[in-house]
Every structure is written in C-alpha cells, then in structure tokens.
Specification:
4 domains, alpha/beta, Rossmann fold, Helicase, Ruva Protein, domain 3, five-stranded parallel β-sheet, 447 residues
Length: 447
C-alpha cells in the first residue's frame, strides 16, 4: 500500500505550507487547495484518507464541505480548523459529522495526535484486523438502531451523551463506542460523578501537586490525565456540583487541565463520553446543570431504551445471563420453565437489565434442582397490579410487623436500585442517616 493521502483546504498560503510540511514529515502525501470548489473537484477525482479544512473560505465555509463529505464520501474522516475560542463553530462541525477540530494558532503536537487518530480510524475501516464488531444482545428494532448509532459515533471524536434509565447498560454502550473507535488502544476511564465526595472531587478528577493541601504528600495524576490518548466516561454527570461543571467546561473547550496547586495548564487528549439517568435539559431548566456545559457534552445524544420497550429481547438476554452464571459457578446452567419465561416476558422491569440479572442470579441460587420456576423468580408486582391495600396501608388480618417490614424492605430496595447501590445517596433519598440505613439493611437481611 502507498502512503496515506490528505486533502488540505485553506485560503492562507502560509497555513497550507505549514500543514503540508507537518503531514509530509509524517509520510503523508498532501494535496493543498485554497477553496471549496477545488476541494470538491479534488475529492471527486481522487481517493483520500483524511481531509483538513479551514472554516472560512473564499467561496463558503468549512461546514458546507463537512456536509458534502457526509453525503458523498461518508467514509472519509474530515476535521475542521477553527478560530481560537470559536467553540460554537466547532460544535456545529461535530454535529454535522466532522471527526474532530483543532484551533488556530495551530498546536503542531495536537495536530499530529489528531492526524494519527484519524489514520487509525481509516486503517481499521479497511483492514480485517480493525475494530471489534459491535456486540449488543437483542434482535429488536430498538437495539438495531442503537448498534447503528454506536457504529456511527465511534467514527467521530465528538462528545457523546448517553441517556437512559438506571440499569439499561449505559456504561456498556460507552465501552462499545470506545472499542470501535480510533482510541481503542488507549485507556477507557470510567468515573462515577455521584460517588466521589465533593471535597475530593477536584483532586480526583484533575490531580494535585505535592503540598497543595493538607495530606497531599506526593504528586497525583487525576482521572482526566489517566484517560490521555483514550476515552473519559463521566457517568451520572448531572451529579457534578456547579463549581466542578465550570472546570469541566474549560477542559472540554480548551483541551487542557490544571492540577490543584499547579500554576500552568497542560494539554489533554481524551474523548469525553457522559451519561445520566436524569433528563439533562430538565436539569438545565431547574438551574442544576450549566447550559453551556450541556451544549458541549450533548453534541450527540444516544438514548438507551429501557427493557420494557424491547421485551422481545428477554429470552436472548436470559440465555446469556444463565450461561454466564453457569460458567461462574462451574455448575450446569439452570433452565427456565415455560411459565417462568412467560412471566419474565410479561414483566415491566423497572430496574431494566440489571434487575433481570439480579432476578436470575437469585433464582438460580434458590431454585430446587436445575429448573427455575415462577415462584423462584420472586418478581415484584407492578405498581397498581395487586389487589392489595395502597402502599403504606395494611390489610385486615395481616400481621402488622410483617407488613411494615415488607413496605420498608421494598422502599430500601427501590432506593438502592435507583442510586446504583450507593448507600450514601440511597439514605439521602429515603430521608435517613447512612448509619440508620446500614442498620435497617442488616436487620431486614438485605446485605
């Protein structure tokens, strides 16, 4: 195979020359043109592995070229060169399908990283040893659409926000985007924004210098720096306090990070993926999430469907989960009776796939023999489905202590599932202290 070919589109001769020299030193053949018309002609006439275009051109702007490429050369990665601080144009380009952007004045080190990542993407598309095939269980239309979205956004460096209820598999989607993209050889660093104590959050995310505060006995790299060359996944980003949202916004806009106690900022090269089970637009409207940060992290949004919207996938998920349980225990995989499978296919799954996993793990432990029946599943009744008294009341003749314990147990289980088993947050949700919650969990046998 010959050298990779790049098309450079810029009306400034100095920039074309600088880009040409930089790319040629990377053994890339360069074709440099000054306007959109010549760029389109060049793209029609020859094959290219990447395209770099300025935003302002004599006969139009770079965004129109991004759109043209998406329609006529969808496999060609295109990056835009923006004026310093013009983040709005960069976000528009990413939304239209640009691979990435770089700001003027050009940082050649950052430019070389961008080009290297772009060429990895091109190589993986054309070679059999490319990125792993996206594997996501489920044959429903909803899952087919989700796979298509993952494959599409994996070819970009744009920030992606993954929205879905607790237990739907948002982190799995983030891992698949990373694994199918140009950064798959770099680290995937997940961060649960709701699990880091507020007072430690800045140090954990950005790192710190020795002596910057009491207890800082040595330099420490932050989680953002650990994602260098890879992907940073900010789970439950809506839980970030407002002062940390400001700092994260600067990281995304400037692609730099400054550890606590450090005077200078350092460049950072990491793709940002985020997720939350809360509607971010509603959080913005309520004043709990910054609008400017919302537009930066929500360049592309992927919705992960709840399990109740794809119940036809339940049998396939059940087979996979039971096979996994059998491998973990070293015992024959249990099987579901027809009645048990029907019960699962009719159940609305408020806790989604995570609840299905928990239900099957418990049933596999408690069932007699190797068959799981309906009684082994212990499915929680859907709200309003039981002909029982309303929540918080007790039927006549029912032992008061047992009824109250059932109500309390159900409330604690729901709170734990809603907070992804974060006991501190579950206690706050229930309006009790952490110590009280821990006592109740132990007393009710929920450990």
């Amino acid at each position: 195979m010959g050298s990779p070919r790049a098309l450079v589109v810029d009306d400034e001769p100095d920039i074309r020359e600088l880009l040409g020299i930089t790319l040629e030193r990377m053994n890339i053949e360069v074709v440099a043109v000054p306007d959109l018309t010549t760029a389109r002609s060049s793209l029609r006439a020859g094959q290219f592995d990447l395209c770099l275009t300025d935003m302002k051109l004599p006969d139009g702007d770079g965004l129109s070229l991004v759109e043209w490429v998406q329609t006529n050369r969808p496999q060609l990665p295109i990056a835009v060169i923006t004026a310093h601080g013009n983040v709005e144009s960069a976000v528009k380009a990413l939304k239209l399908g640009a691979f990435d952007f770089i700001s003027k004045p050009l940082d050649l080190a950052a430019l070389r990283k961008l080009i290297t990542a772009t060429l990895k993407l091109t190589d993986s598309t054309e070679s059999p040893g490319g990125p792993p095939r996206i594997r996501l269980l489920g044959s429903s239309k909803a899952m087919a659409h989700l796979r298509e979205m993952i494959e599409k956004v994996a070819r970009s460096q744009a920030p992606v926000h993954i929205f879905g209820e607790s237990g739907t598999g948002k982190e799995l989607v983030a891992q698949l985007i990373h694994a199918a993209g140009a950064r798959r050889e770099g680290p995937f660093v997940p961060v649960n924004c709701g699990a880091i104590p507020t007072e430690l959050m800045e140090s954990e995310l950005f790192g710190h210098k020795k002596g910057s505060f009491t207890g800082a006995v040595s330099d420490k790299r932050g989680l953002i720096q650990n994602a260098e060359g890879g992907t940073l996944f900010l789970d439950e980003i809506a839980d970030l306090p407002l002062h940390m949202q400001v700092k994260l916004l600067r990281v995304i806009q400037e692609k730099t990070v400054r550890p606590v106690g450090e005077a200078r900022e350092s460049p950072i090269d990491a793709r940002i993926l985020s997720a939350t089970h809360k509607p971010l637009a509603a959080e913005v409207a309520a004043g709990r999430f910054r609008e400017d940060l919302f537009y930066r992290v929500n360049v592309i949004e992927i919705r992960v469907p709840p399990l109740r919207e794809r119940l036809e996938d339940v049998p396939e998920l059940v087979d996979s989960i039971l096979l996994k349980l059998g491998k973990e225990t070293g015992l024959p995989s249990p099987a579901l009776t027809n009645a048990a499978l029907k019960a699962l296919c009719d159940y609305p799954f408020p806790g989604n796939v995570r609840e299905l996993e928990n239900v099957l793990e418990r049933a596999a432990t408690l069932c007699a023999g190797t068959n799981i029946d309906v009684s082994d599943l212990q499915l929680r009744p859907a709200a309003g489905a039981l002909e029982k008294p309303a929540t918080g009341t007790v039927a006549a003749g029912e032992p008061l202590g047992d009824a109250l314990e059932d109500i309390e147990r159900d409330a604690i289980v729901r709170a734990l599932e809603q907070t992804r088993y974060n006991k501190t947050k579950a206690a706050a949700l229930l309006g009790m202290s952490f110590r009280s919650l821990r006592y109740r969990i132990k007393k009710l046998g929920l450990e």
